[in-house]
Amino acid sequence: MTDDIRKPRLYGAIEAGGTKFICAIGDQHGNILEEARIDTRAPAETLARVLEYFAAAQSRTAQLAALGIGAFGPLDLNPASPTYGFITSTPKPGWKNTDLAGTLGRALRLPVSIDTDVNGAALGELRWGAGRALADGRSPTSLAYVTVGTGIGVGVVHHGRPVHGLMHPEIGHVSIRRHAADGSFAGTCPYHGDCLEGLASGSALMARTGRPLSHAPADDPVWAIEADYLGQLCALLVLCHSPQRILVGGGVMQDRLYAAIQARMLHALNDYVEAAQLRGADYITAPGLGAAAGIKGALLLAITVGDGLLHHGT
Amino acid sequence: MTDDIRKPRLYGAIEAGGTKFICAIGDQHGNILEEARIDTRAPAETLARVLEYFAAAQSRTAQLAALGIGAFGPLDLNPASPTYGFITSTPKPGWKNTDLAGTLGRALRLPVSIDTDVNGAALGELRWGAGRALADGRSPTSLAYVTVGTGIGVGVVHHGRPVHGLMHPEIGHVSIRRHAADGSFAGTCPYHGDCLEGLASGSALMARTGRPLSHAPADDPVWAIEADYLGQLCALLVLCHSPQRILVGGGVMQDRLYAAIQARMLHALNDYVEAAQLRGADYITAPGLGAAAGIKGALLLAITVGDGLLHHGT
What's the first-to-final CA gap in chain A, in angstroms? Predict the structure, then answer.
């Protein structure tokens, strides 16, 4: 007990993205003590650098208790599967069928908890961020976390647990209805063309307008188009998941979008779902942890390894 | 213990629909011992007849242990809400803001567990029906139950628990993309016009073709249209919920639709989600409990009152 107070339990956390791996050491209260950025190259090279970081960190600080990974996917998250913890069918060159959790866990001899980056972020927001107020101990706790960046990812937590099943949700790739002013744009998704990600991600915005949304003039129709697409997403989340709150972040998001997204969500729902909260100023809001949602989510995955709420490999 | 063997624990179950209330007495093994059908009229009249049935049943058999209700909605399922167990914003005349669970529970002095009819059916299928094989004790257990009748309802279970949040899912009302051969049909949903229910429910089929699907000639384009819409729904369920299996039942369903729906689901996903199960013959299948899924689901709600897995009122 005395020992616990002197030396906080330390955990490794990885936010594994298509562009960079953020590696960090954190404690059980959600504090990130140190952090490093490693560019995402081929798996062997990238994972070797990740292992170097954690080996050095363990020799500097203390033995870590566990490793949490929030990763791009798709991932195999079925603990009964022989490829549990693998990145599976990603279009990212070289990364298909990469044993992410197993490789790192075996080399570092740590228990590993892995989930999608967005499921991890949703858990982190629920524990330490904009979802904290939702856990009143009586209501079912459910939260959706949306990130609109190069791609679009959505994590969902119900009853305090991330949604898993056959695999995990891939809500960024749902079909939406085309905005009338967006008629000629084919969309950028290599699988679906004009799915949500193909129409509303940062890549789609760049392909459609040649500049990021933040650089578009205030009267450019792209603002209304983007708000409509993300409003359709939020309406879909209400119909499919009924979350108590929807957090929307990522590099594409701008302050003026939130109210516009909510208006388009309400337009799409057309009063079918009667819940006063849908009209509240905090129903669709920014992540409380900001850009740290991903790495803090990965830290929480590490902290909750083996507590029965999350699956883990070894 | 001896007493338990002689007298099985009995439960009341109600499948509360817009056309009829099925009331039943069942045991802890899922057997329905007796059943009655009560036409759905105004709430006071309907609930009075429901109460008569259960009062008589209790005097004939034994004190019931609990009451389970699977109901049409929308429902307030937040146990912290003052209107928990109410039917809320239904367009059904007279039924808006009806305290379904409270009225019956107080009059019968029974603990009540209430959920949507489709969430109840999904739980029942998982315990006794076509979802039994999914619960292997290791994988996360998730199942979607779709009923295509007058309307379209979808229940979803994750980790063995029905999805609740702000309210409950209303997946029947999602937007889908219009089939090219269905261009001129406006849709029948009073809220959304051409949402899924507005285009693909039994009411929509009657409005579009003047006859039920089962009476359409084999070469009528309506078959391809219906399969496409339900295939879009299944693709959406895979992307949003990643269920291990999708059960599709209800009065509209015909045997030849299953393979066609699966083909349209795979077309919509376009290999983005790589899971061999999606191509399996049992991924999209009929409910194992058939038409009894709803009432057995309500029975299971009663059985699990107070076991910590489901919320309940008193």
Answer: 26
ipTM above 0.95, yes or no: no
Binary contact (A167, B273; C-beta < 8 A): yes
Q: Is A233 exposed, middle or buried (0-12, 13-18, 19+ CB in 10 A)?
A: buried
pLDDT in tens, A100-151: 999 999 999 999 999 999 999 999 999 999 998 887 666 668 999 999 999 9
CA distance B120 to chain A (A): 16
- CB-CB under 8 Å, B166 with A238: yes
Which residue does chain A place closest to B267, by CA atoms?
A192
Whether residue A166 and residue B78 make contact (CB cut-off 8 A), yes or no, is: no
pTM for the model: 0.93
